[in-house]
Each structure stands twice: as structure tokens, then as C-alpha cells.
Amino acid sequence: MGKDIKRVVRKDISKINLSVNIAGILMKNPVMVASGTFGYGEEYAKYIDLNKLGAIVVKGLSLTPREGNPPPRIVETSAGMLNSIGLQNIGIDSFVNDKLPFLEKFDTKVIVNFFGDSIDEYCEVAKKVDSVSGIHGLEMNISCPNKKEGWLEFGTNPDLAFRVVNAVRKNTRLPLIVKLSPNVTDITVIAKAASDAGADAISLINTLSGMVIDIKTRKPKLANIIGGLSGPAIKPVALKMVWQVAKTIKLPIIGVGGIMTYEDAIEFMIAGASAVQIGTANFIDPASSEKIIDGLKLYCGQNSIKDINEIAGSIAI
Amino acid sequence: MGKDIKRVVRKDISKINLSVNIAGILMKNPVMVASGTFGYGEEYAKYIDLNKLGAIVVKGLSLTPREGNPPPRIVETSAGMLNSIGLQNIGIDSFVNDKLPFLEKFDTKVIVNFFGDSIDEYCEVAKKVDSVSGIHGLEMNISCPNKKEGWLEFGTNPDLAFRVVNAVRKNTRLPLIVKLSPNVTDITVIAKAASDAGADAISLINTLSGMVIDIKTRKPKLANIIGGLSGPAIKPVALKMVWQVAKTIKLPIIGVGGIMTYEDAIEFMIAGASAVQIGTANFIDPASSEKIIDGLKLYCGQNSIKDINEIAGSIAI
Amino acid sequence: MRAIILENKIIGNSSLLKTRRDKYYKMRFSCDNFSVASPGQFVMIRVNNSYDPFLRRPMSIYRIPHHPTLKKGGRGGFEILYQVVGKGTNIMSELKKGDEIDVLGPLGRGFWIPEKIERAIIVAGGIGVAPMVALTEEIRCTMQDARCKITVFIGGKTKNDILCKENFKKIGAKVHIATEDGSMGKKGTSVDLFKTFITDSQSSIFNRQSSIIFACGPQRMLKAVADIARDKNMDCQVSLDKRMACGTGACLGCVVKVRSLEFGVRNSNPQSAIRNPQSYKCVCTDGPVFDAEEINL
Amino acid sequence: MRAIILENKIIGNSSLLKTRRDKYYKMRFSCDNFSVASPGQFVMIRVNNSYDPFLRRPMSIYRIPHHPTLKKGGRGGFEILYQVVGKGTNIMSELKKGDEIDVLGPLGRGFWIPEKIERAIIVAGGIGVAPMVALTEEIRCTMQDARCKITVFIGGKTKNDILCKENFKKIGAKVHIATEDGSMGKKGTSVDLFKTFITDSQSSIFNRQSSIIFACGPQRMLKAVADIARDKNMDCQVSLDKRMACGTGACLGCVVKVRSLEFGVRNSNPQSAIRNPQSYKCVCTDGPVFDAEEINL
Ligand SMILES: Cc1cc2nc3c(=O)[nH]c(=O)nc-3n(C[C@H](O)[C@H](O)[C@H](O)COP(=O)(O)OP(=O)(O)OC[C@H]3O[C@@H](n4cnc5c(N)ncnc54)[C@H](O)[C@@H]3O)c2cc1C
Ligand SMILES: Cc1cc2nc3c(=O)[nH]c(=O)nc-3n(C[C@H](O)[C@H](O)[C@H](O)COP(=O)(O)OP(=O)(O)OC[C@H]3O[C@@H](n4cnc5c(N)ncnc54)[C@H](O)[C@@H]3O)c2cc1C
Ligand SMILES: Cc1cc2nc3c(=O)[nH]c(=O)nc-3n(C[C@H](O)[C@H](O)[C@H](O)COP(=O)(O)O)c2cc1C
Ligand SMILES: Cc1cc2nc3c(=O)[nH]c(=O)nc-3n(C[C@H](O)[C@H](O)[C@H](O)COP(=O)(O)O)c2cc1C
Ligand code: FES
Ligand code: FES
């Protein structure tokens, strides 16, 4: 890539606008790091300049700390991995007290990914951070089961999705991104429910449900039996869902799922995403997001695109 | 593998029972080739001894010939591929007249995969082949949209699934396998509907919906925009669904999705499959299915398993 | 089928380029039971055992040792010529002499050489020359008596993209070259050369009825050549390049639209015309070589 | 971080085996800015650029050139010792001198060597010796005055699985060997040897208070060693081996359960005790080396 970049005159590149406004969150570029794949930021501070990122979405937080699932929690698959971390986290208070101060030192947007076992818990978390400075947006992970109502996942039922998003909406003035689960028959129905309930943006996709078995022990390779599939393996599925949802609703869309290179990121933007999140790629190369930002610039330069926002939804069909 | 096999005494291996009875279809081993990946059998006759296969599931057939989708129809993805063949086929009559005679020469089971745009069309196809000798079973592909009732996919709605399976059931005495689409919120609901409607076995999964975009032209890489994802990329998803369905219903299950090696096949059997189908692997190595059969024997020998049926559903949790 | 690599080397001038990309390589294999293949046929190469890249890569057979007197148990072999354009070909370029790889083939239907042909015109763009060397050798072999004249038009972006010039000359073909930047031969494309040739020489130099055109290259080039051929009422065979998964006719992934029937199937290989009555044909088994009149380019 | 391979060769007797699988290799790297690492730390290696295999492979640092007086702009380096067990290590075994690969590290917290230790007991099973050579060298370096005695117990399936014997001897350690088939040393495991040693010599030969145990190997072996250490009230550090995705503490994939508090955290690295108050710790950042009392083996 280094060589290609040189072909484009440097001063042209510097004029290109990469900044995007997602639901009121003004990011210097459309590249965010995905929840659960970048810790609370400090884990990667040594490998990458956090100032370069459009936004950091922190590991999913709940009202109180969670222990998470027993190990083994991860297993490699073909062009991907399964995880069953089980949403281990330090709780929203510890985050605000112990982790946020570090993140505030950087010139990037901080987005709090959060979840709950009940509508009340979702609302409590939202309320807690509503007026915390240094938090620029919320991302609701609705792939969690509703403990109160029979463990049905919020994200797989449009009514439940509407209710939980609507309740949170009433409890926060922060930009509210809703992150969807791909494990549904029709993602546009859930996206519409979230949109109707007052979401400011939609991010998709979370992981696909999957499983691996050890044929020696005949046990699942994850203690939790089932885990979430991420990585390049799921990219075509994520891209299709982004395209479908972009056709259906008006909200800005954040594309996630298997993005490893800037070419992948461009595909998501062409399909209709206004921004992208880099997840598992961080594990493979901590500098992925930085390289993707450089690549976006390169692509714009080579294709005479002055503003990255021109790409979003520019699919030719 | 060659070396490993030798470690197991040959005569032990020859005593192992590999035969399985799936819904009355007695197969010499649990390895079938999946619909759409093995043509009508003759395409691979030169590369593999068809007599060795448990069964051949032929390319999906409809009442009349179908042209299929315009090209490009395939695109490679990470550890997988997308296809949008669009169910091109020669029609059930041509199959019976022109292709079946060739298949009858071999000592393997012939299973007709079929589909329709309406319940009537499904039934017509089933009726046509009900008394054709040389056809040992039917596999209904219910991932098709119902033309009459607003293009809703049969396989994504339990009521529709029940109705179409039930109607076909009344029109055939052949063993009836129902093949499920993975693009649903809860596959067990659809599996239960098919079971209640009189299916004799369930095969899963068909392909996951996906998409790829060419960032130079900004066009989808498939003329049909969307295609079906197959190959190792989807294996964890398929395995999880097999496990879920095996827990839920009593019918024999046929596992499909990303099986490339005998180890993969064993995983599916441990999860609950009584037989497996080899799909995309045929493209990568036409001898895949044969190698997998040899591998199953090897595994049984090494693990002192006398009958392959012992493995099905033997997951240790 | 296991094939052992006997040679894998850069050819042409492109070795001046800094990156591997766009370089051209020749790879020579030794391979059991690979002794009969016809020009225009191809193989599907599995570049390694990983699932990424996943599919096999189709590659035309560039040269087949012409029916060497194989000893019993002897090995056949073949050569390919390839351009590094992506993941798979990049991995191929790293393979070394002695490495083993998995090859499926020979596959497909190659060119068919009509009897009593007095002139063969070959039009090749870029890496499209790959199957044309074997074809030219075959024409020379089978048509020796007829003293068939062979005229070859090769086009490429720059002089670095002009391959096999010497091979053709050695066989006794007349070679015309065009490059887009004019760095070798005429400035332009092989189609430009071909068009000029046809136009200039149509009445005087040769008999169109006993001539035939063979073309391989980008889709657009093939279309242009086919259009000229139709216009001049000449026979034309084209070798198509489509994405493939199986290479055996099983997946129906590589299809090309058949021309609607009113156009007729002039001079088509009769076998192929019967085999597939549908409106799509498989490039991997019905082709990759088609009569230009048979298909929709 | 790009690292250049300086050497990648089979070690030990396992070269007698027919397949690559289960062979042991040593790989030596040259690498910018890699000059400071401590024994027990590891690197994450990306074996190639493909997505299959997908994740990086964790590998202990086997040897670090001891603080070479690096010239300005000079390069550091390190060595690893690995066993071919699957896809990733198989690809590694095919790498050649001069190849470049991507390495992340040094990562994690290694062994910590308490002051005033008179005896270090090292127990290693199989490839678990890998980090122990660097550790022994470090002990020798830092403890020279104390004349710390080092006793090493190495276990393996057969004599082919006994590695680094000579390295330890060279450093002046006393080496005891056990193999499961008795083909070298005592028949049994390194734990057996260690147990006998502790039992025989407990009162007479050494002072348990000023001794420390370092162990690396399969989980079951570590548990056995830790149980004995607890029983004898001795300090024990273990290096754990868990599946990892990020290696940086971000994914929370590699966790190990912390022992419930009533057991206390005797002699634990104080830093670690404060850092993670939860009931799971990350092996990649809180470890891979833990005080055996800290975690649930
Ligand atoms: C019948 C036939 C004969 C061919 N003969 C030759 C030859 O002799 N020499 C040569 O250099 N090339 C030839 N090609 C093209 C060659 O197959 C592609 O260049 C090659 O597959 C690219 O692989 P890659 O991994 O480097 O590129 P990538 O772009 O990474 O490949 C991605 C996917 O697209 C497919 N693909 C990419 N480009 C093409 C293409 N042009 N045609 C078909 N599929 C493509 C690949 O097979 C793969 O599945 C031939 C193609 C066909 C169909
Ligand atoms: C901190 C640490 C240090 C290590 N040091 C060494 C060393 O010095 N020498 C050495 O030979 N091995 C070492 N290992 C084990 C080594 O990482 C695995 O043997 C290797 O990852 C296997 O990869 P593979 O692709 O060959 O096997 P595969 O079985 O194909 O790997 C599949 C997946 O499982 C993971 N995996 C498989 N086995 C292990 C294992 N034992 N530990 C952790 N993950 C595993 C792989 O990383 C990969 O993600 C260490 C492991 C850890 C956690
Ligand atoms: C280890 C791991 C942990 C994750 N944790 C969370 C989380 O806490 N909250 C959330 O919304 N998504 C979580 N995700 C999902 C990712 O944010 C992302 O949606 C998914 O991995 C797909 O993107 P990718 O293929 O780029 O990784 C996690 C993913 C991984 C791999
Ligand atoms: C090219 C192609 C064509 C297919 N055609 C059919 C079909 O006609 N009917 C059907 O039920 N499934 C069809 N399938 C789905 C496969 O039978 C199988 O369910 C799916 O590919 C997953 O298995 P795999 O990953 O082993 O390929 C097709 C798959 C491919 C790749
Ligand atoms: S490539 Fe499969 S039919 Fe041609
Ligand atoms: S490997 Fe990711 S936290 Fe340890």
C-alpha cells in the first residue's frame, strides 16, 4: 500500500474530508473500534495512537460488574473465531471512575457500549452516564436475553426491541446507537423497531451464533457450549444486512463484521454504512484501524472523492 | 492420514458398521453429497467411485426447467463462497428421463432435492417421482419464496413450513427429508413445524444469506446482488443449529455446512447428526467425500467404536 | 491429482517491477497421467491447503509436451503461464521447484481445428496468449501439409505485457504486436491490428472461407473480435474467462448466455450444441472455447 | 512488528520421525526494538497473511540475547522453541531463513525472582522447558553472588521429547530427567522426580523458606506441582498455557479463575494482586506466570 499512496499526490490527500457526523457524534473519520475487541482503550494505547481513531467503543458495561462465562472462552474457526466471554466487565461505575479518565486524555470520541438483563437495568446504566462528561455516545447491545421475560433475546423480537430502546431513549440525551444481532429472520424489522423507538443510529452486526466440538473429548470447545462468530468468515452476512437495513430506514448505519482491510471498510460504506467498526481485526493486527484510516484516504484520493460521506450508500444497482 | 490408518489393525476396521438408516433410506455410510454441489452425479463420476457414497442428493429440481440467475453467479469469500445460481435445473422430467438411468447404474442411494414457487408446485414434483424406481428419497428445499403469498420464504415461517411439508407428505410415500434455511431467528421452531407436518428427517443447513461488493465498480459481485454463503466459514453456525435441533425433535438429522474433513463430519455427528452432506468441499477436492468415509472408519477404529451410529448425539455436556 | 513443480520462474521484462503483482510467471509441472490435453483446455489449481484462498484457480494449459513417448509408468506434464493479480496467484509465485500441489484437469473443451484451413488468425490480449502457444503448435502439427498460414496479433499495456513473441515466431507464425503505450510494436490494441489487417487484406491476400480466427483475452476484446468476424462472415472461436468454483460442470457457477436461436449456431462444435439445450452454458465444460456465434459476449 | 527469521531448524532427536508433526524446532529472529524481555514473557506470532489460520500463535521467549550493547539503530532479537502440533506451527516449520513474519511482543508478565533465594527448583514438562532456559540464565545472572543452586526436572514422553538438557547443564544447573517410556532418565514424569526430591531432601539438604519452585507444562502437571508446593509450604510460580486471541488483555478470552480469597495471596506479585480485583484474571497480561496460590489450577 505504501507504494500506492505515493502515486496520489500528498497534498490532494490532505484535502480529503474524512470526518463524519453519526447521530451528532462528530468523528474525525468513520473508523471506530468495536466493543469487546479493544478493552477500555488502554490495552491498545501502546500499539496505536488513539488520537487517530474516529471513536472508541468500550467493552460492554452493565450496572454492576459481571464475572462472565467460565473458560475456555475462545476458539479459532476458519477465517474467524468464536467467543463466549459472557460480557465480563467491571461495571459502569468502575468504568467512569477508573477507565474514563485515561480515555479523556485522547482526542477521540468515547462511546459506551452497554447492556442489561432487564429494561430497568438498561435504563439505569443509561441514566448513570447521561451527564458524565467525556462520554460522547451510547451503544446499546440488544443481543442479551431478557431475564424477566423468559430469557427471550431483546434483539430477536421487534416488540421487545422497541420497548427497551424506547425506555432507554427516555433516559438519555446522549446520541443513542442500537447494535443489532444478526441471528434473526429479518433484520430490517428489528432495525425499524429500533428506529421507531428513537434510536439515533444503528450498528450491525453483532456475532453470529456458533459452536465447535472437540472430537477427542466430545465436548464443546467453549465451556458455554455456544459462542459468537466474528471475523472475515461473517463479512458477507454483515454486508448484506447493512445493505438491507440501509434500504429500509433513514438512520445512519455503522457497519461491523469481519472488516480487516480498508477495502472491506469501503464495501460496507458503499453498501450504506456511514461509519465502520473494526473488531476482531484488532487481535490480528493492533494497527488495523490505523491502516484502514490510511487506506480510506488512499481510496478517496485515487477515486477523486473529496468527502468520504459521498461513498456511503453509493452502491451501483 | 495414510500413516494413521495403518496403526489401526485392518481387520478391525473392516468390522466397523458404517451403515445408517435415515428415515428408511438404508445407506452404506452416513456420507451424502449435498444438493447443487454434485450436479446430477455424472459430473463427478470420473473423479470418484459413486458406489462408495452413502447417497447422492441431486441438484434441486422443479416441475419445469429453470434458467437460473444471470451471471456472475459465484464469488469467493474468506473460507467460503457465495452462490446465486438461482436454482437453474433441467426440470423433473428431464432428470427422470435423461439423468436417472445413469445414476441407477451405481450402488448408492439417489435422493431428489426439489422445490417450487407454490405449495402446488412442490406437490406436483413429489407426485411425479413417487413411484419412479431408482429414487430412494426426497429432500425438500424450503428456502424458496412463496410466489403466491407475497414471496415470503417457506422456510422462514413455521406456518408456511408446516403447510408445504404437510401437503407434500400427503403426496408421497418416499422418505421425506426437509432441508432448512439457517436465516431464521429460531431454527428449532421451523424444525418442529416440519416434524409435526410429517417429515421423516431434517437436513440443515442451507446457505447463509450474504453479499460482496466490488469497490472499483461499486456493484455487487453477484448479478443477483445477494447469494448464499457456504464452506468452512459457516461451519460453526451449522453445527450449532444441528445441536439445537437435535435437542428439540426426535427425527434423524442430516448435518450440512462447511464439512471439509472427516473431523468436521464427526463434529456434526457428535452434535446430533445421523448423517452428513458434503457440499462445497466437492469443488475444492472432488475426492472429499471418499476421504471423509475413510476418515470416519479411521476414527471409529481408533476410538473402538463398532457402529458409527453410536456417535450420533454423543456430545458430552 | 498431485503435481510436482519442476520450474516456476518470472518471464518477460516485468522483472523490473518492484512488487510481484502483475509479474508474469511460467510454471512447469510433472504429473502422473497427464499426457493428453488439447490446446484451450485448462486446469484448476489448489494453491495451498488453507481455506483462504478457498477455491481452486483456473489456468489455461500453456504447453503440453507433444505426446512424448511415455514409458510405462512414466509421468506426463504441462506448463502454465500466469500473471500475479491477487491472493492465489501471489501464493503460486512463491512456490519452488520440488513443491507439490494439487491440480485438477485437463478440463473443458479446447479449440477445435477445422480440416482444410488455410489461414489461422490468432488474436490475444495480455495473459490471453497463454493457451495460444499450444494452439499454434497444434495447428502446425496437424496442418503441416496444408501449409496453413498463421498470423498472430498480440496486445498488451506496455512492452512488459507482451509475452511469447518468440514462441510464435519459432513455430513460423507471423507476429504483430501492439501496446497501449506504444512501447513495443504499434500503439493500440491487438484488436486494432487485427481490424486493420482484415480490412486491408480482405480481398487480395486471403480467402475468408478457409480462414479461422482464434481469440483469447478480456471480454471486451473478445466481443470486438467477434463483431468483426460476424461482419466479415468468418469463423471465430473465443476462449472465455469466468469465475469458477468446480470446473466440472457441477456448480453451474460459470455460465454464459447462449445467443438466441435466430442467430443460429454456425459451425459450432456439434457436440456442444446438443448437450445443453438451455439458455446458459457452462464455461468450464461446454467451453472455455466457444464458437463466437454460440454465445452472448 | 516485523521480525526476520535468522534460523529455523529442527532440534532434538525427533528428526527421526517421518512427519513434521510433533517435531521440535528452534526459530531465531532479528527484530527492531526487541532488546528487553524477561523470562516467561511471550510473543504472538502471525504465521502468514492468510485468514486461515486466523489468530496469532502465542510462543514463549526461549532465549533473549542478554542485553547486548546495542548500537544506535541496532536490532534486537530473540529465540523461540516450538513443537509442531497443528496448522499454525506446521506453517511455521516451513518458514526459511530470511523470511519476514509479524510478531507482537514481548507480552505478559514473566517470572519474578525473589531476592535472597538459595535454591531454584525448575519443573518442566514437554515443550514447557521453552521459557525455562531464559529463566535459568536470568537466575544465574542476577543471583551470582548468592550462589543459588538450580535444580531442573525435565519430563517428556520419550527421549525425543527431552529438550534443552545441555543448555541447563551449561548454566551449571543440576538436571534430572524422566520419560514416560523410560527411554531416558527415570521412567515417569518430571512431577515424580520432583516429588521424590522434595520428600527425600526436605529436612537435610535445603531450606524450604529460601527456595522457590518454577513450573511450566501441561495443566495437570502444574496442578500436581502446586499441590506439592502448598503441602510443603513452598513458593511456586507456574506459567499457564491458554488459548489466546489478542494477547493484550483486550478480549478477555484467556482467563483463569482466581482462588477464593480465604486462601490469601501469599508472596504474589503485589502489582498483579491489585490490578484485577475480579474473579478471573487474564493469562496474557496478568500472567502467563502466576503465583500458584493466586489461581485455580
Ligand atoms: C478457463 C480459464 C483459464 C485461465 N487461464 C489463465 C492463464 O493461463 N493465466 C493466467 O494468468 N490467468 C488465467 N485465468 C485467470 C485466472 O484464473 C485468475 O487470474 C486467477 O484465478 C486469479 O486468482 P487470484 O487469487 O490471484 O486473484 P483474486 O482476485 O484474489 O481471486 C479471487 C477470486 O476470483 C477469481 N478470479 C479472479 N480473477 C479471475 C479471472 N480473470 N478469471 C476467472 N476467475 C478469476 C479467482 O479464481 C478467485 O476465485 C484463467 C481463467 C479461466 C476461467
Ligand atoms: C503463553 C503461551 C506460551 C506458549 N509457549 C509455547 C512455546 O514456547 N512453544 C510451543 O511449542 N508452544 C507454546 N505454546 C503453545 C502454542 O501456542 C500452541 O502449541 C500453538 O498455538 C498451536 O498452534 P497450531 O496452529 O499449531 O495448533 P492448532 O491446534 O491448529 O491451533 C488451533 C488454535 O488453538 C490454539 N492452541 C492450540 N494449542 C494451544 C496451546 N497448547 N496453548 C494455547 N493455544 C493453543 C492456537 O493458538 C489456535 O488458536 C504457548 C502457549 C501460550 C498460551
Ligand atoms: C471477544 C469479543 C468480545 C465482544 N464483546 C462485545 C461486547 O461486549 N458488546 C458488543 O456489543 N459486542 C461485542 N462483540 C462483538 C463485536 O463488537 C463485533 O460486533 C463482532 O465481533 C463482529 O465484528 P468483527 O467481525 O469485526 O469482530 C465482541 C466480539 C468479540 C470477538
Ligand atoms: C453452488 C451451490 C448450489 C447449491 N444448490 C442447492 C440446491 O439446488 N438445493 C439445495 O437444497 N441446496 C443447494 N445448495 C446448498 C448446499 O446443498 C449446502 O446446503 C450448503 O452449500 C452448505 O453446505 P457446504 O458448506 O458444505 O457447501 C447449493 C450450494 C452451492 C454452493
Ligand atoms: S465452474 Fe462449476 S459449473 Fe463451471
Ligand atoms: S488473549 Fe485476549 S485477553 Fe488474553
Short descriptors:
heterotetramer, A: 317 residues, alpha/beta, TIM Barrel, four-stranded antiparallel beta sheet, 10 helices, 18 strands, 32% helix, 20% strand, C: 297 residues, Elongation Factor Tu (Ef-tu), domain 3, Rossmann fold, 3 domains, six-stranded antiparallel beta sheet, 6 helices, 20% helix, 30% strand, binds flavin-adenine dinucleotide, binds flavin mononucleotide, binds FE2/S2 (inorganic) cluster
In short:
The complex is a heterotetramer, with two copies of chain A (317 residues) and two copies of chain C (297 residues). By secondary structure, chain A is of the alpha/beta class. Chain A has ten helices and 18 strands.
Gross CATH architecture of chain A: Alpha-Beta Barrel
The figure for the number of domains of chain A is: 1
For the record, give the distance between the C-alpha atoms at the N and C termini of chain A, rounded to a whole number: 29 Å
* Net shape of chain C: globular
Rg of chain C = 19 Å
Query: Quick one: CATH superfamily of the largest domain in chain C?
Result: Nucleotide-binding domain of ferredoxin-NADP reductase (FNR) module
Strand percent estimate of chain A: 15-25%
The percent range for strand residues of chain C is 25-35%
The total strand number of chain C stands at: 15
SS summary, helix count of chain A: 10
- Provide the helix percentage of chain A: 25-40%
User: Span between N and C termini of chain C?
Assistant: 33 Å
Structural class assignment of chain A: alpha/beta
Q: Which overall shape of chain A is indicated by the principal axes computed on the Cα atoms?
A: globular
The CATH topology of the largest domain in chain C turns out to be Rossmann fold
Instruction: Output the strand order for the largest sheet of chain C.
Output: 10-9-8-7-11-12-15
From the 3D structure, determine the CATH topology of chain A. TIM Barrel
Helix and strand element order of chain C:
EEEEEHEEHEHEEHEHEEHEE
Strand order within the widest beta sheet of chain A:
3-4-7-8-11-12-17-18
pLDDT averaged over residues of chain C: 85
